[in-house]
Every structure is written in C-alpha cells, then in structure tokens.
Write a structure and sequence with these properties.
Helix content is about 15%, strand content about 35%. By secondary structure, the chain is of the alpha+beta class. A hairpin with a 5-residue loop joins strand 29 and strand 30.
Length: about 575
C-alpha cells in the first residue's frame, strides 16, 4: 500500500482514502441570531463592510450567529455570491425573493439589522450604528444589544431608524395552486411519492389514486412539514443533483392546505399514475450477481446490517458504468451499498457468518478497496458519463451491504445486483475517495459538538457524486469547495442527518476541482440525552469506530484523476 503525504493529507492511493486531521469547534449555545438586510448595489451597505466583519469577528465565537438577506430585485445569486466573496462574508448570504422576509421583518431600508434572542424573540430592529462613516459613530447599537444578551441582561425590544437605500423587491412568487387532488395534489404525489408508495414496493401503503391519498392526508401533511418525507436529505450547492426529490416550500404548504381543507378531490379526472419499469430500467445488464443463498431475517428487534460477499466471474478487468439493485424482499430491504474488497478479508469474515454474509454496523469491518454505489427506494440508477467507469480486477470481491428492517414475522431475502460495463475506451477511471476524520472525540452531554477538517487537493480531479456518512449522533454535514483564489462554493449540505437514509447524490454534471483547491468538511453531532437516537444512556464520550456506540465523520466521493496523474490510474 502506497502513501502520498501532502500537508495534513494522507492519501491511501489504492482507491483513494483521504484521512485528514480534524479540529473540534466547541461553541457556546446560541444566545443571539443576527440577520443583516443588504443590497449589492447600495453604497451605504458597502461602507459597512469593515464594521460588519469586525462585529462578526468579535461575537461569532461567543454564541452569536449571523446571516444576510438580499431582498432587492436587482440582485441575483451570482451577484450575491461575488459580493459575499469579495467582502469575506463567511456567513450565509441568501436572496429574499419578492422581499417576503423583509416584509415579515418590517424592513424598508438596507442596511437594516434584525436581532432575535435564543428563544427566537425579536429584540432589536434598525441601524447597525448611528453614522454613515465609521469615524463618526457615537452609538454602536448592534454591539450594545449583543453585549447585553451575552451578559444575560434583560433586553426589551428596541428599534432605531435605519438609513441607506430603499428596499425595492421584485414580484412575489407565483400565486398558490388550488389545493385539490385533481388539480394539484395528485400530480405532486405522483412525482414525489408513488415510486415507493405503490403495490409491491418497499413503502408500507399505497398512495396511488385519490382514495388512498385521502385516507392518509393528515399523515402526508405531517411528514412533509417535518421533512421526513420524501426521503431526500441534501441541499444542492454550486451544481444541482440528479433526480432531486425535495419538495419546495410551496409544495409543502400546498399539502398542508389540502389536508386542512379535508382533502378535497376537486373537479375533473384524476391525474394518470406514471408508468414504472417492471424490469431493469437501464436495460439488460451485462452481468448480475446475487447473494450466495437465501438469507433468513428474524421477526423482531433492531434493524440489521449484513454484508454478503460475491466474487464476479470475470477473467480480465472491467469498468462498471452503473449498477442497479433488485431487492429479493422489498418488505425488509431498506437500502443496499455495494463495496469492493481486493484484500479477501470480507470473504474470510463471511466464511465465519451465515448465508455467505456477516453482520456489522456502518462499515464492512475492514477498509474497502472502493465502492460501486448504492440503492435506496425511489432512487433511479445512474450511469457515469461515457468513457467513465469504476475498474474491477479479477479476484475482487463485491460486498453487498444490505440494511434490513424487520417486519414482525420471519422473512427471507436474496437480493440481486445488475452491473453495466463501459464498452468504449475508458478516458476517466473512477475511484472512491473516503474523506474521513478519524480523530473526532464527542464529549458526553454535548448537543452541538462541531468538527471541521480541511483537505488539500493535490491534483486536478473530476467529482461525480458525494455520500455523507455518520452514525446515530450525527446531525449535520456540509462540504465546501475552496478554490485556489479563495472563492468558496457549497457542494453539499445536510441539515437533518438520518442514519436510515444514506444516499449517494450524483451531480448533474461532473465538477472539476483544480489542483491547489481545498475541501472543507464540517459536521455536527448531538451526544446529549435529548437525542432519541443516542445509543448510550447516560451519554458517554464517543470516538471514531465501527460499533453502534461509536461515530464516524466521513464523506465518500467518486472522483477521477486528471492530467498527467491519470497515467498512474486510480491508484495515483
């Protein structure tokens, strides 16, 4: 095994395992939330840049959070992104379409600052201070409010008159759709829900047709409001993801209005249920592999993760451009991830298990040589671009990790995986980068333990997909691309991590990360009694590990090496 050391980066170059040291951020509980209303074209707001940076620097690490909103019609995402980059604003800077948030906060001028305390109560609205020029400031309003909140002093709501440029919002979002099944709700459910919620699929009930949907309208409204459904956890960054299944805020509001109205059917005919493929959606596979034998799962207890080892019958290297999964029993198969193992260790563990498999939690009990990707209900199989694939050499084992959810009765399963090979000349060999922080240490009782790792990128790479991975204490994960010029671009953000929904998120187009760039990965964990998923009662200090009571901070990326480094292939 060859190691290339670049700064804090150690790349295990047989399949690219990148392990970087992690730095723990321990921040105080938020005591104040500050929102600036700004505009890229307002000269007064521009003059406040040094003062805003100074305030953020002085208060951010003490329990104060910051964000900005841009409500004016003249602003768009590229302008806001460049404005924030040029001013080194590291807090969230977001558009406010139609000025709806500005109106809710009763903001009429930019710059204006709005401050809320830890309970969300409005405590201040108005000017940042009392002067257009910093040398003339006599009353530092915002600083006074924040000092009072940090000192624990009672602060009644106060307001000053803001000065600067008028808020000039564009048109509001489109009017609300009619909340009936035939006119809007049925089409929404067909697009986002019935791929799983239909007969013969993994979901526990059908939502095909009005009668089925009406029976469960309250549940539909509840689980979409809480974002439990549909199960899509990631927010896209600079490049959108394929088959993004998130509901918009307007979609969620529509389902709530429909439920509140008693789930009316509406006039006219019901929308037609989509046609779903009955065979392999990508066509006839080049090869199929299945679990060595039928596996029997007990009726009761916690979910189980089993790893079944299969050796494909290949005589020469092949390049896999896509996989698909056919669960043998959709009542119990929750999701599947296919790993590669060239070491033979997984096969030796399977020989000591049952039905050609062995049970673990999270990983496969050894460092895998790579991965072919995964499957979960409702996700479509994805092909890599033409001329691209993951190499499998003869003698490599496939490890099918199957997440089983028990049904209350004894069940059997024999899941099958389809492999699609790249037939043309392979220009880009895909490998899997395991971006891991094995140095995490999560204090007992800490509800928001934060860790940050920054990983240098020593060569040009194409990035195809990302998969965040944590265990039961995980809450959030975020990955940011820091370009060589210092400009930042969000790649993926998960604010509601759920161990039961581990997806591989494929970009619409591969993203070229240039040499000299960095990846900043941030994660947050909840190791308190308030976390219902905490496996330890009372909580205990948790470190990196494979067990249920351990944790991981891992971002799995599919990449291909570019330029002269490609001559060394995926083992650069």
């Amino acid at each position: 095994m060859t190691f290339v050391k670049v700064g804090l980066l150690v790349a295990v170059v047989t399949g690219v395992h990148w392990f970087a040291t992690g730095k723990q951020e321990v921040k105080k509980e938020p005591v104040a939330r500050v929102r600036f209303y700004l505009s890229t074209e307002c000269p007064v707001a521009a003059k406040y840049t040094p003062r805003i940076l100074s305030i953020v620097r002085d208060f951010e690490g003490k329990g104060v959070t910051f964000e900005a909103r841009f409500p004016n019609a003249a602003d768009d995402e590229p302008k806001v992104s460049e404005y924030a980059r040029a001013r080194s604003y590291r807090f969230d800077c977001l558009l406010d379409p139609g000025g709806m948030e500005a109106q809710s906060d009763r903001v009429k001028v930019v710059p204006t600052v709005v401050v809320r305390d830890a309970r969300g109560r409005l405590v201040y609205r108005g000017a940042i201070d009392d002067a257009k020029y910093s040398e003339d400031v006599q009353e530092p309003y915002l600083r006074d409010v924040l000092r009072a909140l940090l000192d624990g002093r009672t602060w009644s709501f106060s307001e000053t008159e803001a000065f600067g440029c008028l808020v000039e919002p564009g048109p509001r979002p489109l009017p609300m759709r009619k909340s009936t099944y035939t006119e809007s709700v049925g089409d929404l459910l067909n697009r986002h829900c019935v791929s799983c919620h239909r007969p013969g699929q993994v979901a526990p009930f059908s939502l095909v047709g009005y009668d089925n949907a009406k029976k469960r309208h309250r549940m539909i409204a509840q689980v979409t409001q809480s974002r439990r459904m549909p199960p899509w956890k990631a927010e896209p960054g600079v490049v959108p993801f394929k088959h993004d299944n998130r509901l918009s805020e307007a979609d969620v509001a529509l389902l709530q209005r429909w439920s509140d109205a008693g789930a009316p059917r509406g006039e006219g005919t019901e929308p037609k249920t989509p046609d779903f493929p009955t065979d392999w959606p990508l066509g006839e596979p080049d090869m199929t592999v299945k679990m060595p034998e039928k596996f029997t799962l007990g009726p009761d207890g916690r979910d189980e993760y089993w790893n079944f080892v299969v050796r494909p019958d290949i005589k020469e290297p092949v390049f896999v451009s896509a996989i698909d999964v056919r669960p043998g029993n959709r009542r119990i198969v929750h999701h599947v991830i296919v790993f590669l193992d060239r070491s033979g260790r997984a096969a030796r563990q399977a020989a000591q298990g049952k039905a050609g498999g062995f049970m673990t939690f999270g990983g496969i009990g050894t460092i895998p040589s790579g991965s072919l990707g995964g499957w979960a209900p409702g996700l479509m199989p994805e092909r890599y671009p033409p001329g691209t694939g993951i190499r499998i050499d003869p003698g490599t084992d496939l490890v099918l990790q199957v997440h089983y959810s028990k049904s209350g009765v004894e069940e059997t399963d024999q899941t099958e995986v389809a492999l699609y090979f790249e037939k043309g000349k392979v220009q880009d060999e895909v490998t899997i980068a395991w971006l891991a922080n094995p140095l995490i240490q999560i204090p007992a009782g800490k509800s928001d333990a934060r860790f940050t790792q920054t990983i240098p990128i020593p060569v040009d790479v194409k990035l195809y997909s990302l998969m965040p991975h944590m265990h039961l204490l995980g809450r959030k994960m975020k990955a940011t691309w820091i370009k060589p010029d210092g400009q930042e671009a969000l790649l993926i953000k998960v604010d509601d991590w759920d161990f039961n929904w581990q997806f591989v998120y494929h970009f619409e187009e591969p993203l070229l990360l240039t040499r000299g760039s960095k990846l900043r990965i941030e994660a947050e964990f909840d190791n308190s009694d308030g976390n219902p998923n905490n496996p330890s009662r009372p909580p205990k200090t948790v470190r990196w590990g494979e067990a249920t009571t351990d944790e991981m901070m891992l971002l799995v990326a599919s990449v291909s090496i570019q330029g002269r480094w490609r001559l060394l292939g995926s083992r650069f």
